[in-house]
Design a protein that fits this description.
It catalyses: demethylphylloquinol + S-adenosyl-L-methionine = phylloquinol + S-adenosyl-L-homocysteine + H(+). GO terms for molecular function: 2-phytyl-1,4-naphthoquinone methyltransferase activity. It is found in: Plastid, Chloroplast. Helices cover 43% and strands 18% of the residues. The protein has helices spanning 2-5, 37-49, 53-61, 64-75, 93-102, 115-127, 168-178, 196-215, 220-231, 236-246, and strands spanning 83-87, 107-112, 136-140, 153-159, 179-190, 250-256, 261-267. The protein has a 7-stranded mixed sheet, sandwiched between helices. The protein is globular.
């Protein structure tokens, strides 16, 4: 059971369709009106789970999601003084780790489409204050139309986000666009395994561990969504192909957590 529960983690993600943005300079925090029903439904879903999903992450993964997130940030190669983007930032776990990496001379832009998730992240920032967290900016935005200029970031991370974006090729193209040449994107998510055993284990865990636990918080339907989102996601090989089609020169997908999680590392 420990291996099964250690495989389960969920984070906020996806994108809304918004008006065109000015590419010449970054834009500050602001609201975007959702004009896509699919994106709107996902936005509402992640807003509903925002108050409890940090606690559920810890319980369901036995704390292992923290290790996977540290690996994701490490593979981004973010360093002191860098300007970095955490896309689909949810309640801010990767943004906080990036903040420590880049230090006070660096910048962290943390973008999510859920205002509730961003509020949760900002509240956590106040509760666990560290001086370096001053370098984080929380931005309500669109993964399909990022409000940043070309070649703006030294690294980009996405934690449990790309899987839920309504247009994955476009999102990957946006990540490529805002990265500087030679820089990396590190993308952590559930692994859509080609192994029948692994995929069966993952499905069993969601039905018998995740959903029953989430039902105690009145979130049965919200966590049932997890299973379908994984089944509709891309395999590691497909993610590598997606990154290369977006323009990345190198893309490699690594399996984590016994193949139940995966991390794509793509170099511009």
């Amino acid at each position: 059971m420990g291996t099964v529960t250690a495989a389960i983690s969920i984070s906020a993600a996806a994108a809304v369709v918004s008006r065109p943005v000015d590419r010449r300079r970054p834009r500050g925090p602001g609201a975007f009106r959702c004009s896509s029903s699919a994106a709107g439904e996902r936005q509402a879903l992640f807003s509903r789970i925002a108050p409890v999903y940090d606690h559920l992450n810890d319980v369901l993964s036995l704390g292992q999601h923290r290790t996977w997130k540290r690996i994701c940030v490490s593979w981004s190669r973010a360093k002191k003084g860098d300007r970095v983007l955490d896309l689909c930032c949810g309640s801010g776990d990767l943004a906080f780790l990036l903040s420590q990496k880049v230090g006070l001379d660096g910048e962290v832009m943390a973008v999510d489409f859920s205002r509730q998730q961003l509020q949760t992240a900002a509240d956590r920032q106040e509760q666990r204050w560290e001086m370096c967290y001053k370098n984080i900016k929380w931005i309500e935005g669109d993964a399909l139309d990022l409000p940043f200029p070309d070649c703006y970031f030294d690294a980009v991370t996405i934690g449990y986000g790309l899987r839920n974006v309504v247009d994955k090729p476009r999102a990957m193209q946006e990540v490529f666009r805002v990265l500087k040449p030679g820089s990396r994107a590190s993308i952590l998510d559930f692994n859509k395994s080609s192994s029948l055993f692994t995929s069966s284990l993952q499905s069993w865990a969601i039905d018998n561990v995740v959903v029953p636990l989430a039902s105690g918080y009145g979130l049965t339907e919200e966590y049932k969504y997890l299973k379908s989102s994984i089944s509709q996601y891309l395999t590691g090989e497909e993610l590598e192909k997606l990154a290369k089609e977006a323009g990345f020169s190198v893309a490699k997908h690594y399996e984590l957590g016994g193949g139940l999680m995966g991390n794509l590392v793509a170099t511009r």
